[in-house]
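pipeline/complex-builder :: batch 7 item 3
reading input block
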Amino acid sequence: MAPSPFREANVEIDGSRVRYMEAGQGTPLVHLHGAGGLRLTRAHDLLARHFRVLAFELPEGPSPEPALARAIATLDLDTFNLMGTSVAGAAALGLALQEPGRVRALVLEAPTAIRPDKRDADLERRLSDLATPTLVLFGTGDDVVAPAMGRVYKASMSNCHLVFVYAAGHVISADRPEAFTEVVVDFLERHEAFVISRARTVIHP
Amino acid sequence: MTYDLNPQEARERTDEGMELILKAWTEPQPFGWQGRHFQYRTVSIWPRPLQQPHPPTFALGTSRESCEFAARHHLGCGVSYGPFEVMAKATRYYREQCARHGWQPSPEQIVYRANMLVAETDEEAHALLRAQPNEAPFTMRAGVRDAVMTLDSRNIAGEARAPVVTGALPTTFVGSPDTVVEQVRRCRAVVGAGVLDLSLHPPGSGDLDPLMRALELFGKKVLPRIREL
């Protein structure tokens, strides 16, 4: 397997360092990791073939959005795509709500911001104000948060698409990296037009 | 062979296809599906199914895997043709798996498909059975048959068995209406099937007269007595 194209870097915010891993070129894609910490998967390598991927280590604390916003500003990222995994779905939504003009499109991988036993009426209300093109993904075998929660995002947000990734658990990008990357790339490149297939089906010319 | 489906991919393709169909029936809004064998950006069912959460659905097959799939997705289970005791192994395993997933199937969720030869007397019915050619109504070339035998690792609830490739499928209900009613009673007790899917036609026969006689006998002398089972 080819070595990872990612290199480690840091950005200074108020005297503390925010660590991130970066690879690729083109439109920036900011990734916020899930509860397991910043770990690169094959999906990162595949995404870095299409985008300038910046996988940030989430700053400590309950609301990392302001520090993240300043880290991103320090790196001169004018506009960017934003992807949040699992628990970072809430931070990604918070950042998109805070910087709607700068987030080109949003990807939420198995977000836990809304759970069957922990509905957030305030968040769900604020989501209706968010017009950012959003892709919500759930693995059909997710045993951390019920995939049916995807309906809530789709119903609350005006420009939200829901995709189920078959035979994937909670961490879709690790379980089925090729399937995950294919749909994420297509969505980030074409937004809602991604529903129109460009896949060729001719068997023999 | 049908539709050029690769037998080695058949199970995983069928499993995914069934999960996709169940999702399409139950998901209230359009969704995308990023599968192994199927990929759709938008799946939208309209009109929605009348039954909620979805119409009665069965996983067919006697294998351990199909019983587990049915149990996991709260589906009915269909078994076919084999002797009651053998089919009972599959339905027992299915019920065990349902219990493991925290539910219990009703008799209507177990279907048994079978051949039935019903005649005025046991002697007539057995004469019909003897008159049947003991071979499949279609022929299969040796190379194809051997390939099917190699690929098909059929099992009954995990117990390996040779697939029926060249012989006729067994006929498990044979006799007069009295005898057949008793056999249906035993099938219910042993297999647990609340639904029978019957072929009253001698397999491979193009003769309509025995079928019409069997239909009439079944309708008048068997059906009224098995409704209450």
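note: Residues 87 and 130 of chain A are 19 Å apart (CA to CA).
queue -> next item
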